[in-house]
Amino acid sequence: MHVSAFDRYQHQHSRVHRLDPRAKVLMTLFFILSNALLPDGAWAAFLAAWGLALLAGSVAQLPPGYLFKRSFIALPFALAAVTVLFTVPGAAVLTFPLFSRTIAISDAGLARFASIVIRSWLSVQGAIWLTATTQFPDLMHALRHLRVPRLLIAIISFMYRYLFVLADEATRLLRAREARSAAPVSGKSGGSILWRAKVAGGMVGQLFLRSLERSERVYNAMLARGYRGQLLTMNPHVMMKRDWQELGTAVILIALVQVIGRLF
Amino acid sequence: MPIIHQTGAQEQRQTDNRAGLSTLLVERLSFSYRDGFQALKEVSLQIAPGEKVALVGPNGAGKSTLMLHLNGLLQGNGVIEIAGLPVVKENLPVIRGKVGMVFQNPDDQLFSPTVFEDVAFGPLHMGLPEAEIRQQVTQALSQVGMGGFEDRLSHHLSLGQKKRVAIATVLSMNPEILALDEPSAGLDPRARWSLINLLRELPLTMLVSSHDMLMVRELFPRIIIMDEGRVAADGETAVLLADAALLETHGLERP
Ligand SMILES: Nc1ncnc2c1ncn2[C@@H]1O[C@H](COP(=O)(O)OP(=O)(O)OP(=O)(O)O)[C@@H](O)[C@H]1O
Ligand SMILES: [Mg+2]
Questions:
Q1: Could you identify the atom of ligand 1 that is nearest to the CA of residue B35?
Q2: How confident is the model over A34-69, as pLDDT tens digits?
Q3: Percent of chain B, pLDDT > 70?
Q4: Atom of ligand 1 nearest to the CA of B63
Q5: Domain ranges of chain B
Q6: What secondary structure letter does DSSP report for A185?
Q7: In angstroms, how far is the first alpha carbon of chain B from the final one?
Q8: Domain B1-83+179-184+205-255 in CATH 3.40.50.300
Q9: Is the CB of B63 under 6 A from ligand 1?
Q10: Who wins on pLDDT, A195 or A119?
Q11: How close A154 gets to chain B, by Cα (Å)?
Q12: Which of B108, B130, B132 to mutate to test the interface with A (most CBs of A within 10 A)?
């Protein structure tokens, strides 16, 4: 039983896949930073940034529409910005009554909201591009080379490793519950909502306890193999001339997007 | 008294065997868990270099608890010596290099993203140079028949593969003693036999806890039976397995 829903790596042999992971992390970071820095309503620049994402996707030989489709997971989070529709002052484009008051959506508010949604959606495409072209361990090594604190990297690595184990464990628990949730031939079963909620709560608790016990056993396994509070790794990565070149190209393209954002 | 078996494995480890030193010595070891439960009661045993010993007994007998003492993960009252070196705090770094401990659940043992990183973890934290680490990893993986799996992600392996890699993670540290907790549990017959063959060929001192009496009979010349935190019997496998009354008292079956 393997839950592999978290594995986003796409096996290809493109030049992007062969690139040093550091270069890719930096490209993605610059891309996200650039999106964040674009002014509201810089539609031409947003379009250019999207073009960049499409280009990156096709160079990486990802299936067409891959980045686009997967990036929708970001949309619910962008809804957090929905209040700017009403709070940014500007000419009203739409008014409607709400509890004996009138609420207005301003044009500036609309432009800012749309910009926020587009920015986050573009940035998520960048992140998906990175994880689709870089194996997870390489990503961690890249972060190590980029001086991200060791502890943070260790935490992310463990999370990645045990996400699968936890998901498997959750699947097992669910299955065990299902196997014992027989229904009488006539009519409904399963008890009241409250009762169901209690079962679900108990399962979450189980999962937590199991993880806690596991963490102790894993720590023991690490101690047994000489761990003394410092995680070490080897570094097989070297930035080649080619990596620098491609990183340079990406930086220039991203700068171009910025220029478009300021001019038009 | 333990029966000392002279096997070919011994010549290369002769240096540790000065003046008849045991590779593993446990003397009157008692241990209680934090909740007050006494899991070990005056356990004593000795294992000679190169000897392969099975540790059997019913659930809750204290086998895993004893294992955890061998490299100081738990510390009880009594004496434990590994190759003449007492298991005390100052010696732990050295001891942990000498005792290769494999836990029952390979998901606890394999905590790194890739197989390579997991097998390299021990030698890396023992401070070996990189070239040597790589060589150890390659050698350990090919010893367990998992050569070429270096870059695979641990969580995508099958249980049998995980168990093999788990053993490789300690072989790469060049241990003197291999302490395995229920290595054959959950394996299908073929995986189990290849594990048995693997363990047979490894020239190391071994203490292996198991409920798999067939494996015990095939592999281990000597058995230690534990029950309720005590050593209930210690002797030649053929002799103990012939004693039906003894087996029944301790909830064991004949293979
Ligand atoms: N963390 C703990 N806290 C309290 N008691 C424990 C703990 N771990 C184990 N025990 C108890 O110690 C006793 C010995 O447990 P141990 O795990 O060593 O048995 P075992 O011989 O390995 O059994 P099995 O064959 O089931 O693996 C058991 O009665 C168990 O309930
Ligand atoms: Mg046990």
A1: 4
A2: 999 998 888 999 999 999 999 999 998 888 888 888
A3: 92
A4: 21
A5: 1-83+179-184+205-255
A6: S
A7: 24
A8: yes
A9: yes
A10: A119
A11: 10
A12: B108
